[in-house]
């Protein structure tokens, strides 16, 4: 059938074009110069693996721009990246994520800029943000997509390390790509604990308040970290260490690419490897370090005592009271008493 000869098809096609709104439609993987995201709109990676939009963590009343697995992959909303960790909004419908001055930028209810990718202004009109199936949000020049990214979320992780991302050091701009825990389940702002590459050796360190080191993986010998012997039994993660003139980092892939897995620097101070179990619809804790919560530095604060056998783990000596009862019961123990 020749379309041009059929008078019924043209009006139908025109109707379809008018019904496309100049907004991100559900399902698109790109925010381009003429589109924006607000309210319940989201972008979804091309293969429907990751989704990006406003979310509300735990019992918080604040909204953040975050990334989570698409619901067909992981049914429990699991945040793997947060943009505006320290600058939430309260009304997602009047806030807007869009391209502005060559950057991806978030404007709050008063149309004030509260988060941005912070690149020095580029004149390119075709900058766009694309959400990849690997969970990397890439800002690129849409007129030349094969050039290296202008900015990517993999360089600015929150508490989660996804397969394919790097955790390490850039020798060019001295940037340390580290995982930093959330403050609490309700607050994704940078918390007390961080996992980072030792600048002097090929090993990971966990820090409390970025200054006191309380765990080390031991050096990488090409196969395992020396103080993590259980890695010998590892049959799911393919780790590799790269060190050259420009950067040093670890990265990993999954031997079975259909397995959904991630590392999280947990708000309790442990680094955790979790894999999604589709049969139980829950995350399965595959591995964590330090082994027990009581080995986390200052977990119970200045005078608390930690008891690995009790739940909750922290206890106050007789005569002391928890300093902040609210925090204490929401399990932020390191406030002391
Ligand atoms: C948005 O911009 C893109 C690229 O410049 C263009 O292809 C598309 O037609 C535009 N969409 C609308 C709704 O204006
Ligand atoms: C939210 O509040 C409810 C009731 O107070 C509590 O049971 C739940 O654990 C809280 N969730 C988070 C993530 O804090
Ligand atoms: C938007 O952000 C600005 C700057 O942080 C702040 O002063 C203003 O109160 C915010 N608007 C709303 C409605 O929260
Ligand atoms: C962007 O720059 C401002 C001012 O230097 C800074 O406060 C903010 O944290 C930066 N944002 C990001 C996402 O790096
Ligand atoms: C790395 O080496 C430098 C110089 O010897 C030292 O000052 C620094 O503390 C070391 N860093 C760590 C994390 O050990
Ligand atoms: C493991 O990762 C390395 C480096 O990325 C890669 O060359 C190798 O093919 C991977 N091995 C398997 C079995 O996937
Ligand atoms: C280091 O960076 C420079 C400049 O971007 C590049 O030409 C070179 O190939 C890089 N070297 C390695 C080992 O990646
Ligand atoms: C990969 O994992 C899936 C479950 O996630 C399983 O069904 C499949 O058999 C695995 N493939 C291999 C080659 O082990
Ligand atoms: C107790 O809490 C207050 C307010 O949060 C804080 O200023 C103080 O430093 C805390 N005391 C200790 C010993 O942590």
Automatic annotation (TrEMBL):
InterPro entries: Bulb-type_lectin_dom, Bulb-type_lectin_dom_sf, S_locus_glycoprot_dom. The keyword NAD does not apply. GO terms for biological process: recognition of pollen. CDD domains: B_lectin. It comes from the Eukaryota. Keywords: Disulfide bond, Glycoprotein, Signal. Transmembrane segments: none annotated. The keyword Hydrolase does not apply. Residues 1-27 form the signal peptide. Gene3D superfamilies: Bulb-type lectin domain. It holds the Pfam family B_lectin. Residues 28-152 form the Bulb-type lectin domain. This is Bulb-type lectin domain-containing protein. It comes from Populus deltoides. The lineage of its organism: Eukaryota, Viridiplantae, Streptophyta, Embryophyta, Tracheophyta.
């Amino acid at each position: 059938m020749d379309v041009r000869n059929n008078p019924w098809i043209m009006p139908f096609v025109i109707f379809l074009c008018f019904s496309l709104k100049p907004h991100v439609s559900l399902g698109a993987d790109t925010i381009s110069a003429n589109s924006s995201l607000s309210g319940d709109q989201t972008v979804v990676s091309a293969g429907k693996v990751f989704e990006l939009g406003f979310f509300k963590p735990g019992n918080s009343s604040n909204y953040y721009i975050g990334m989570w697995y698409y619901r067909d992959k992981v049914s429990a909303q699991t945040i793997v990246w947060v943009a505006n960790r320290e600058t939430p909004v309260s009304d997602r419908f009047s806030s807007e994520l869009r391209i502005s001055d060559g950057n991806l930028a978030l404007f709050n209810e008063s149309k004030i800029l509260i988060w941005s990718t912070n690149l020095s202004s580029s004149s390119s009109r075709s900058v766009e943000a694309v959400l990849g199936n690997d969970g990397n949000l890439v800002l690129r020049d849409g007129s030349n997509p094969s050039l290296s990214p202008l900015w990517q979320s993999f360089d600015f992780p929150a508490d989660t390390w996804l397969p394919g991302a790097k955790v390490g050091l850039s020798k060019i701009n001295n940037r340390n790509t580290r995982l930093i825990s959330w403050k609490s389940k309700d607050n994704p702002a940078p918390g007390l604990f961080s996992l980072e590459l030792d600048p002097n050796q090929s090993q990971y360190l966990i820090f409390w308040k970025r200054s006191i080191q309380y765990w080390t993986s031991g050096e990488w010998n090409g196969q395992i970290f020396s103080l993590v012997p259980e890695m010998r039994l590892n049959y799911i993660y393919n780790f590799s260490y790269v060190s050259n003139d420009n950067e040093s980092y670890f990265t990993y892939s999954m031997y079975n690419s259909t397995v959904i897995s991630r590392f999280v620097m947990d708000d309790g101070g442990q680094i955790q490897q979790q894999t999604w179990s589709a049969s139980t619809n829950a995350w399965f804790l595959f591995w964590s370090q330090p082994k027990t919560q009581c080995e986390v530095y200052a977990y119970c604060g200045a005078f608390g005592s930690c008891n690995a056998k009790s739940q909750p783990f922290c206890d106050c000596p007789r005569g002391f009271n928890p300093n902040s009862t609210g925090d204490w019961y929401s399990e932020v123990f390191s406030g002391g008493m």
